[in-house]
Amino acid sequence: MEYKISNRLRTGAIILMVLGVLGVGYGFMDAYSVNEDNITEYLAKEDHHGDEHATESHGEEHNVSAAHSEEGHADEAHGAEAEAEGHKMTHEEHVLHQLHNRPYAALYVAAFFFFMISLGVLAFYAIQYAAQAGWSPVLFRVMEGITSYVLPGGALVLLIAFFADSHIFIWMDENVVAHDAIIQNKSGWLDKTWFMIRGLIFLGGWSAYRHFSRKFSVAQDLADVNDNSNFKKNFRISAAFLVFYIYTESIMSWDWIMSVDPHWFSTLFGWYVFASMFVSGITVIALITIFLKSKGLLPFVNDSHIHDLAKFMFGISIFWTYLWFSQFMLIWYANIPEEVTYFVTRIEGYNLPFFGMVALNFLFPLLLLMNSDYKRIPWFVVMTGVVILFGHYLDIFNMIMPATVGDRWFIGIPEIGSILFFGGLFMLIVFTSLGKYPLLAKGNPFMKESEHFHY
Amino acid sequence: MEASKVIHAIYTDDDVLMSAVKTVKAEKYHIEDVFTPFPVHGLDKAMGLAPTRLAITAFLYGAVGLAVATVMMNYIMIQDWPQDIGGKPSFSFLENMPAFVPIMFELTVFFSAHLMVITFYMRSKIWPFKKAENPDPRTTDDHFLMEIAVHNNEESLTNLLKDTGAVEINIVNKDEDAH
């Protein structure tokens, strides 16, 4: 079955991107309309509105700093910043930094979210090949379409990281590092040049796998019936890629996410981010498959395939919760100051998104997809999928925002604009790529088994 | 007790058995039971058996386990004998809840799994040391057996079963209280 991106879809995606650019632009203008000259007025106006948030947060900040004064540092990135300037940084400067960081962070969260969807799908795809799965080959072209976003998406994340600099990664600010013994000890790793080189190596490896696996997959379609050499090549590179992936994904999660809180660390963070990207990726496979099937383009996909995808959505959601809780409980129980600040800031400043995300990512999939029959009802899977995707956007939001904007967070125009922009770009690239080759990878030796798959 | 006649058709391949079941069902005969050495995928649907309700009981048992764990931990650690563990003696269930989550999870699984197995035993009327109701011991090795009740239609049924690829067809008097 051939598919060509429809004009309506392309126009829709471009409109989303344009709206997104406007939103992001507004976000930057709005943030930079407050500067050193009028920050005092800005804060005074805020107080007039009866919003005592700012003063409250300031008090908290001092408590946190006081708690750690023995070690001479505060753990929250901006606590570190305040400390670094020898407590010379005023409240005004601090708020100003948070305001200016917000559009960068909003852009980064959305960029990473859409990128991780395609990277999660790439890992899922490689697992199907390495395991020689018989059920999934009818979905391979959908997966290949989604993974076409790995290279552009990853490049954009790196670009934003490069230009946002210390607006997102506090350790890229030399002044901060100069006064911070802990970051100094990590400076061998947390170095901007080395960070970018690592990023390029990861992205290079992932895109190389994506390039060759797509090439062999297409070549297998055109090959003779008895010639499985392309399939075998794909099997081999998939196994090698999975080894490369699990190391690089883990390191990427320290670099691109965990380092925004440079004092804090968690040893299962790589797994945790992996669970997030895996479940988001599988959800998007299910959503796009249901969309194409509703257009009559995937007649070979039956409801058992949807059922299996929904089982994965259900299972990996629970896996995510398991990791979320494992990370939380150990830190909560041990209550070691430099670790626990991570959750203290989130529970105090981000109560709704932090616990709301657990409800969205755990309770909804658990209850909606528990029943076997519901996993075969497309609108049920779509509904749960939308909830899961929103929940995992919030997950990334909770990872990045507390370290960059403190408690001055809101899902407003900069955030929604960024989602629209990257969502539009994602749709444009993925659906264009879907239209390049037939939607059935007919040369795959497991295709017959996959077409007859039933549960 | 009145003895009822049944026909035992024996097959040696699960694919042949599956198509035989479909043929027999299409001819509107009532299949009493099928004995197989291993689970045959899709056989229940082909035989037209009602879907299992075991999953619903599993959910309910899990909910009971969760409730038991919650009440138990509240009684042990909050009401009866609060202990200071890791500086968390807060006398509040909600504040100490994260520490109880592993127990709540485990008891949910424990109740669900064990009670589900017991339910399955009771529903299938099997228990330890019970004598097997298996009509032919070869069905525990490499043969498949389809049992169909006979109501004065031995001949047509035998012919039909022969056509479906049965390797052996026996007509037996099934004594209801033999076991």
Tell me the radius of gyration of chain A. Answer: 23 Å
What's the helix count of chain A?
18
Radius of gyration of chain B: 25 Å
Tally of distinct domains of chain A: 1
Percent helix among the residues of chain B? Answer: 40-55%
CATH topology descriptor of the largest domain in chain B: Alpha-Beta Plaits
Number of strands of chain B: 4
Largest interface: A-B, 11 and 10 residues
| Low-pLDDT runs of chain A | 50-86
Strand content of chain A: under 5%
Mean pLDDT of chain B: 88
- Shape field of chain A: globular
- Helix segment tally of chain B: 5
End-to-end Cα distance of chain B, whole Å, is 13 Å
What's the rounded overall pLDDT mean of chain A? 88
CATH architecture of the largest domain in chain B: 2-Layer Sandwich
Instruction: Report, as a whole number of angstroms, the end-to-end distance of chain A.
Output: 24 Å
The helix/strand order of chain B is: EHEHHHEHE
**What share of the residues of chain A lie within helices?**
over 70%
Shape of chain B: rod-shaped
Looking at this protein, list some descriptive labels.
heterodimer; A: 455 residues; mainly alpha; 18 helices; globular; B: 179 residues; alpha+beta; Alpha-Beta Plaits; 4-stranded antiparallel sheet; 5 helices
Protein architecture, described:
The complex is a heterodimer of chains A (455) and B (179). Chain A is mainly α. Chain A has one domain (7-451). In chain A, 74% of the residues lie in helices and 0% in strands. Chain A has 18 helices and no strands. Chain A has helices at 7-32, 39-48, 53-67, 77-84, 91-130, 140-147, 150-164, 174-178, 181-186, 192-222, 229-256, 269-294, 303-334, 337-349, 351-368, 378-405, 413-434, 447-451. In chain A, helix 1 runs antiparallel to helix 17 (413-434) and helix 12 packs antiparallel against helix 16 (378-405). The longest helix of chain A has 40 residues, at 91-130. Residues 50-86 of chain A have low confidence and may be disordered. With 179 residues, chain B is an alpha+beta fold. Chain B has 2 domains: 4-51 and 135-174, 2-Layer Sandwich (Alpha-Beta Plaits), CATH 3.30.70; 54-123. Chain B contains 5 helices and 4 strands. Chain B has helices spanning 14-26, 43-47, 54-80, 93-123, 154-163, and strands at residues 4-11, 31-35, 144-149, 168-174. Chain B has a 4-stranded antiparallel beta sheet, with helices on one face. The radius of gyration of chain B is 25 Å and the shape is rod-shaped. The two termini of chain B are 13 Å apart. Classes of the chains: A mainly alpha (455), B alpha+beta (179). Chain A binds chain B through residues 325, 328-329, 332-335, 370-372, 454, and chain B through 42, 55, 59, 86-88, 98-99, 101-102.
